[in-house]
Write a structure and sequence with these properties.
By secondary structure, the chain is an alpha+beta fold. It is built from 28 helices and 22 strands. β19 and β20 form a beta hairpin. The chain binds arginine and aspartic acid.
């Protein structure tokens, strides 16, 4: 009995120690204090100071936030940068035309002059990070109302921002950490002249498409190449033909040596959002209640779009981007729900809560301060759950109906007209017409009708009665509650479903068109539904979430006090972070083990001639047949394509430089393995894996496939000495 107990204790301890190995996306300026020993134990050969320093060029000077939602890495003295293909996708599409289809055919600038300006694209460097928690929370005391607290903090932040030392071309951002218990300041430099340099065709850059999305083993060459331009003083400047390639403080050497199982691998980037400190009740709601609601609705949307796309290649082209966006989150949510079950994550979170309660109960001061937190959180989430479910039914159904997007464009013009006058609305007419033109390019009435019919039926069935406006329910009644009848009627009378008609009206007589559209049945229906949905669902959900945020902040503070021995990583919040771990295979299910590295051979195994997901360009097949691999091979003579690391990452990390033990670039993160995507809520080292495209595949495709060897020559390509037979433990 005692032996068993002891074993249990030891196992628990080991489990805790293992989790600490790789969980978390850490602040670069705290690595020395919190992570360096662990990173060295995992194999890192450089120091925290090489990763983040304000006194010398360090790795952080080569990591950029790309376009606001992705990450990229600088790889040359002339501002060349690498990010994912899926991060550049929208821009590459916008630069393309039927004659110059860079998505289908790829693109390689042969000289600076060929590089294409990308309007609206920007990249941001982090110059300096500072802990400003003390000044931010000055004057805040525990018994003040949330509103008072926030207004004091807002004033403090304003003062900190104004007093922060910065150059005239730099910006200052302050962000809350640990659910608002700490604040950090970021001095940033944003460049707005970023040009497109190159990308492989989609058949490499998006090989495997939706079928392989979130999946390991993977064979996608998910990269694209851009260059940052600056003014003559190397400072940010709007686009100008006179701008010159940016000279970075540091750029990443690129390693041809790769990694093998057990090697250290670190990921440097801008992860968007995690929720690692939710109580079990909240994770259960999010993953087991809300995810299935959204997934169920998107199942319907994807089935309708998919059927039409398979039947008609023209529709396939029009709907591919929309469909990819809907499917990306859909597939992740399914993975989260399955992963939570498989990892027994809820039970583990409940075990942690039980331990929290035990420690709190044993300490009178903690008991007074923290004793009520979990029960209060449980109550608050119990109240949120039905509201959030209803809100999700509302959001997912109404956002899935395409003609409601048109209605919301028109509504914004009408609102402008009604609040600021006809001239104000007219001043925006060009913008609205532009929006609509873009939108209608990828719009098919026959698909939208089916979406409307299916989604409105769900809306009337599932959205609570008090959030359904009388206008809509009466209309539905008058069609005998038949979505088919309602759809037929609406689409035969609206002017918005016919692109030609709607645009023509707006372009010929804007004022008259607005007045006519005010009476359009789709507009009237959308207005009524949207107004009540915001009022009865979205606002109450936000209000409840505000209360919850205050509780989560106190709970976070309590966790830090009660578990001083645990290093708790801050949740991701789209700021610069370091994740680290090792290259490791995993067991996705019973009796199956995945290897951690894929090869070009695997691309050929998946090759399906003519298939829209798995076709392989002829040139690549030739290179493969001729074994024309150049120096981009591993010790076995094969071209590596992708590998996985135990490092903890999430959406926003896409394009993140992945670095070896010496800080050389070995790849770009582009995805997470499906079995482990629950890691936004619950990290399990057994199953969490980040997916990285090997930099040797990137160089191989550029040089051998794309004929852009000059770009490879621009980089600092290195090889690292083999690790002298020293074995890495798996
Ligand atoms: N899953 C990747 C991340 O969340 C996106 C991959 C893009 N590729 C695709 N086929 N949708 O962004
Ligand atoms: N694909 C995601 C992104 O674009 C990364 C991930 O979730 O692993 O940010």
């Amino acid at each position: 009995m005692t032996k068993k107990l002891l074993l249990g204790v030891v196992l628990c301890f080991m489990a805790a120690a293992r989790v600490q190995a790789d969980e978390g996306m850490w602040l670069p300026l705290l690595l020395q204090q919190l992570n360096e020993p662990q990173m060295k134990k995992l194999g890192m050969k450089i120091s925290a100071d090489d990763i983040y320093s304000i006194n010398k060029g360090s790795l952080k000077d080569a990591v950029i936030s790309f376009g606001g939602g992705c990450t990229g890495g600088v790889v040359s003295a002339q501002g060349l940068l690498l990010t994912n293909h899926h991060c550049g996708h929208g821009r590459i599409q916008a630069l393309s035309s039927p004659e110059k289809n860079y998505l289908a055919d790829g693109f390689w600038a042969q000289s600076f002059n060929d590089e294409l300006p990308v309007p609206g694209l920007f990249v941001t460097f982090i110059v300096r990070i500072e802990d400003v928690s003390k000044a931010a929370l000055e004057g805040v005391v525990s018994n003040m109302s949330e509103r008072e607290r926030q207004s004091i903090i807002d004033k403090n932040l304003e003062a900190i921002r104004n007093n922060a030392a910065r150059e005239s071309w730099q910006n200052v951002q302050i962000r809350p950490f640990y659910e608002g218990n700490q604040y950090y300041l970021f001095v940033t430099e944003t460049f707005n002249d970023v040009r497109f340099v190159g990308a492989p065709p989609e058949s490499i850059g998006n090989f495997g498409d939706d079928t392989d999305n979130w999946v390991w083993p993977r064979h996608t060459g998910d990269f694209s190449v851009f260059r940052i331009y600056a003014d003559k003083n190397n400072r940010p400047a709007p686009y100008s033909a006179d701008n010159v390639p940016y000279r970075p403080r540091y750029f990443l050497p690129v390693s041809l040596s790769g990694v093998k199982e057990g090697d250290f691998a670190m990921i440097y980037g801008f992860p968007g959002r995690t929720n690692l400190y939710l109580p079990a009740v909240a994770v259960d709601m999010q993953v087991n209640v809300l995810n299935p609601i959204r997934v169920g609705i998107r199942d319907q949307i994807l089935a309708i779009m998919g059927e039409a796309m398979r039947a008609n290649p023209e529709i396939k082209l029009q709907y591919t981007a929309k469909q990819a966006g809907i499917a990306n989150a859909w597939k992740k949510w399914i993975g989260e729900t399955q992963g939570l079950k498989r990892t027994n994550g809820l039970e583990e979170i409940r075990r942690r809560e039980a331990e929290f309660k035990r420690r709190v109960a044993a300490n009178p001061a903690w008991n007074t301060a923290y004793g009520n937190l979990l029960p209060e959180l449980e109550r608050a989430y119990a109240e949120l759950s039905p509201l959030a479910s209803a809100r999700d039914y509302f959001n997912e159904t109404t956002r899935g109906i395409e003609i409601f997007r048109v209605a919301s464009f028109v509504e914004s013009a009408l609102n402008l007209h009604d609040t600021q006058g006809p001239d104000a609305a007219k001043a925006r007419s060009g913008q609205l017409i532009g929006f609509l033109k873009n939108f209608y390019q990828n719009y098919r009435e026959e698909i939208d009708r089916r979406l409307f019919e299916r989604l409105m039926a769900i809306y009337f069935d599932k959205v609570p009665a008090e959030a359904q406006p009388e206008y809509a329910t009466k209309l539905y009644q008058s069609h005998n509650r038949s979505a088919t009848a309602l759809t037929g009627d609406i689409y035969s009378s609206t002017m918005l479903a016919d692109p030609g008609k709607a645009l023509h009206m707006l372009e010929t007589d804007w004022d008259k068109a607005l007045e006519t559209l005010r009476q359009d049945p789709v507009l009237k229906l959308f207005r009524a539904i949207n107004q009540l949905g915001v009022e009865k669902l979205q606002r109450p959900v936000s209000a409840q979430q505000e209360q919850i945020a205050a509780l989560q902040r106190q709970y976070m503070a309590a966790l830090m006090a009660v578990f001083p021995e645990r290093r708790l990583p801050p949740d991701a919040n789209a700021t610069l972070r370091v994740s680290y771990g090792q290259v490791q295979g995993y067991k996705p299910r019973d009796a199956v083990r995945y290897e951690p590295i894929t090869y070009l051979d695997g691309v050929m195994e998946k090759y399906k001639p003519g298939d829209y997901e798995f076709d392989v360009p002829e040139k690549l097949r030739q290179l493969y047949a001729n074994k024309d691999f150049g120096r981009y091979v591993d010790a076995t003579g094969r071209v590596p394509v992708a590998f996985i690391s135990t490092a903890h990452t999430t959406g926003g990390n896409s394009g993140s430089p992945t670095l070896d033990a010496r800080g050389n670039l070995i790849g770009l993160l582009f995805d997470g393995a499906w079995e482990g995507v629950i890691s936004d809520y619950y990290f399990s080292e057994e199953i969490n894996r980040s997916i990285i495209v090997d930099v040797r595949y990137i160089l191989f495709v550029m040089d051998k496939f794309g004929g852009a060897g000059h770009l490879v020559n621009e980089m600092k390509v290195v090889t690292t000495p083999p690790s002298k037979g020293k074995k890495h433990k798996a």
